[in-house]
Task: structure prediction
Amino acid sequence: MKISYAWLQEYFEQKLPAPEAISEALTFHAFEIENVERAGDDSVIDVKVTPNRGHDALSHRGIAKEISAILNFPLAKDPLREKAELTPPSKELTVAIENPQLCRRYSAAIIKGVAVKQSPVWLQRRLEALGQRPINNIVDATNFVMFNLGEPLHAFDMAHLAEKKGKRAIFIRNAAEEETIETLEGVVRVLTPTTLLIADGNDSKPLGIAGIKGGRAAEISEKTHNIIIEAANFSGVSIRKSAKALVLRTDASARFEHELSPELTPHALREVVTLILKIAGGGLEGYVDVYPQPQEERRVTMTLSHANKILGFSLSGSDVEDIFVRLGFSYEKSGEEFIVTPPFERLDIEIAEDLIEEVGRIKGYGDLPAVIPEPMAVAEYNKTLYYTDKIRETLREAGFSEIFTSSFREKGFVAMLNAFASDKSHLRKDLKTNMEESLARNIHHVDLLGLSAVRVFEVGLVFPESGEELSLCVGARYHNSKKQKGADDEATAALAAAGETLSVVLSGKAQEGIVEVNLDEVLKKLPAPSHYEPHAETPKIRYQTFSSYPYIVRDIALWASKGSEKDIEAVIKKEAGTLLVRLGLFDVFEKDARTSYAYRLIFQSYEKTLQDSEVEPIMERMGNALKGKGFEVR
Amino acid sequence: MHAKGHLHPITQIIRDMVRIFGELGFSYAEGPELESVYYNFDALNFPKDHPARDMQDTFYIKGMPDSVMRTHTSPVQIRHMETHKPPIRIIIPGKVFRNEATDMTHEAQFYQLEGLMVEEGVSLAHLKGTLHYFFEKFFKGSVEVRFRPSFFPFVEPGVEVDLRVNTPDAPEKLRGRWIEIMGAGMVHPNVLKAGGVDPQKYSGFAFGMGIDRLAMLYFGTDDIRLFYNGDLRFVNQF
Result:
């Protein structure tokens, strides 16, 4: 949520530290900060309020309270700790709730004789800092209070509610099947019976989608004189489902989704009434408050030793008391036990561990000690890990490299309900389909890689009709397709060798150089290991990005005296420059006291496709340079 | 005979993890990739129909409303606790799935390492000590670890863990900078209960780290998708 620094400052008498310092305080004691931006004279801090604090911290008062606790700056005023009585009662409005499980409280205020116009500049600025568009003084006031206290409000033009015997009525009910409402932006929405509606209690007309968006029927306009302001409380689950179904998420629904405390409504209502009377004039007629089941006060117990045990600190009773006082938690202390009554807006404080987290985070984890656990022997050695590791080592020795491929394919036995991409719509039923793609792709790069053939394997879970299975797939492919039988033989031989390491038979029919076997049955019969094989540590390799542009192959052969490799290679590299990505000696033989060296050179650019015409001059220069050093180029 | 092959960088990292955590007595544990909603969310204290479930984009399965592709390896914590009594020390490296758009730092599948320690008197200090030990051995030099408060439904208190690697040969992106490396915290009593462990007697810590991300930081690779396209121009560098 975007928080205005200037707005925050109004909660304190003492000058707050700079926005960056506020940011840091929140980061290390409460919430991550997305960014801090300057906005004219003000700064806007984008706070990432976690889902467990949506009920109290999606507001300036909530963040001010956090800052107050963290920095130990008392709040100059706390609107939620002031008395908020909804008197006098209204004589012109009645409210009824059809289902108190879905609407736990409905409070409303009636103000008569307002003048609807542009908001004063200070209010417009406050809203603009948060990226909100000012509309008119009434709507702006309701938005201001929502961003100030976290309770969404809505204003209706009283003239558009049907009058019966001098009274207006509001009925909070479920929508009828296919009932429609035109919402404020002029969109007609079709509703279902699970959507909660604010409706006219006298003529049943829909006035707004509860907790989500108001309707056009009773929209505030310049002609409005008498208004009804709603501050209510709705079931978060219900609002969330409706918002999702309607594809309509608003600042209001986002707050209700987190489950707000019904105790908020009178505070928000009184604040908005005071503000509206000030900026729009008029007079308060009265309030209505339907609150069938008041929120019960909670008491949560925590002991000092439990807190220290969980946190790893050695805090004293007074350390803890100090933190509870800062947070505004009232408590009773009995020995080392604290019985805490959290304020009504802190719905997240339910168990001792919730209090322990409050203590830990306000104290801060900066000087948390690092304690290494008492030594303990490894309890179990995992079969799958042990044996697949042996398989990997055997295959590696045989020249095979390990690949990981996607578990998703466009076809399979198990389908995803909601895949983001069409090629991720099913789970793979085998490894060989992906293996074929890997072989086909890698065969183009054998020269670049300095390989005589592509040799790969994969160990992973597949999802055939019978269910989740562990599979091993080995694949080989030569450049020359005539040698395909050789590839089949290599793959099956490698597989057999892997089996030998496990003293089992691993075999299968190879096709196109690929063979695959199920490992579950094999693993079942093997004994549990008593240790893992030691391995060399992973070397600190610095990865090099490779170019996706096609490469050019050139061979060069020459006669030289025995042992000239280093000199030859130095000349080649110097002449070839940075375009040479690979130099490989592929043939050496001796004849008549001379040695023949044959090198394969791979040229490639990171920026474009190289042309032969760019490589020819390099080869010519190279030939001359080698001749100059006394080597005979063939 | 041709040259030796190469093991996938993630296999190599997992080996290091098994070895280093093994020095502290952690065992390797595993579980299914196609997981039940119960083990993936409910038993881990994710409330039904609450924004907390939005924190993870989930693959749901056609015709199997009680199943999902696991979004983390945390379900194995519950499975393991159900069949083992404390003291428990396990790490769970495994493939996990997120239903989100793919780009250089996001893939629909990636590898995660979960860790769990449940005994009498386990605290956040043990979590810090364990993580510091691991990173010091992994990066072979001086590292720092720090905690910031955060929220995950399966831990309370919950923390974000930042890492700073100070070794002279650390990759540029990493050296001397604080980076967010994982989420962690003290196992929520509801989760201990779901695993059949008495939260009055035992406490535990849990952590979850992206292995791909650690590999990218360690090796200096820049695109997570390279781990899964079966290209030897990538694998053969390791």
Summary: The mean pLDDT of chain A is 94.
